[in-house]
Amino acid sequence: MYIPRDIQEFLDNYPDVIDDPSYTANLEFYSNNLRCRPDNRTIEEIHDKWFGEYDKLERKHGYIQWLFPIREYGMNYESQPLQVHEINAMKSDPVIIERIIESYKLMLDFYGMRLISAETGLVGRALPPRNSAARYYNLVRSSHNYLRISRILKCLSEMGLERLNAGFLLHVLNEQSEHNELNTRGICNSMDTWWANCLRNEAERSFIGELIRRVRSADENGYVFTREDYEEALRTRAETGQLGIREKKQADNSQTSNEDANQHEDVKREVYDDLPEQSFGIIRKGETILQSRPPAAF
């Protein structure tokens, strides 16, 4: 599968980028000691005054580099690329981490979504009086937000919040699969090529990539990634440390004929054979569990 150069550098942890101790703007901004440029706002002022200000969030382009700094240069040359020493300091400060989560909530609301659980990453549609349909429409037609989402996901990974990435990705996948929302060619291309690869956890990246492949092939296999599947995947990770979903198969053991039993075995083998290299199936009576796992050590 094609991996864009910026994504590969992110996955490789930017091997050619050297930390500059003199760069501290991102740390100072998230410590509420520095105003972002050119908007001249502190992080707390943005959280307090810009939440729900959709026109402002849409038309202004300089704030996103400050809210979600990454180790790459952006289009706002008054911002600074994130430095390794800043990452270490910011990750160790619970106040800063909470502010980053608040920034994530602000942008989710802008996109018509809400963070239900910061622990699991579970995302849902924004609730009334918010208009999620209008926000989804804006996301569909404003493609510059696709670049913003890539930046957001990279930043969350850098800050030790990568658990939130799967929650976002699987929410969007459920909307596409079960409700035919956010299902345009542009969003699907950005999601499949960029967003879904903004995961340094190889097992989760493989698991989500396989689910995306199955959803994109739904015309052939009839697969639907439901809200129940989405919540089950995150619940399984909370319990086991790995994303996983259980795909139940209908079977009446008391009245199953030999022909039905053989068909059921064929279904189980098909599901098992369809798993990616980094996933595995556990076959039990009447069900298959699809779960991510770390790659084998060599």
From TrEMBL:
GO terms for cellular component: membrane. InterPro entries: OGF_rcpt, OGFr. Coiled coil: none annotated. It comes from the Eukaryota. One of its GO terms (molecular function) is opioid growth factor receptor activity. Residues 23-210 form the Opioid growth factor receptor (OGFr) conserved domain. Residues 241-271 are annotated as: Disordered. Residues 261-271 have a biased composition (Basic and acidic residues). PANTHER family: OPIOID GROWTH FACTOR RECEPTOR (OGFR) CONSERVED DOMAIN-CONTAINING PROTEIN, OPIOID GROWTH FACTOR RECEPTOR OGFR ZETA-TYPE OPIOID RECEPTOR. Belongs to the opioid growth factor receptor family. This is Opioid growth factor receptor (OGFr) conserved domain-containing protein. It comes from Gymnopilus dilepis.
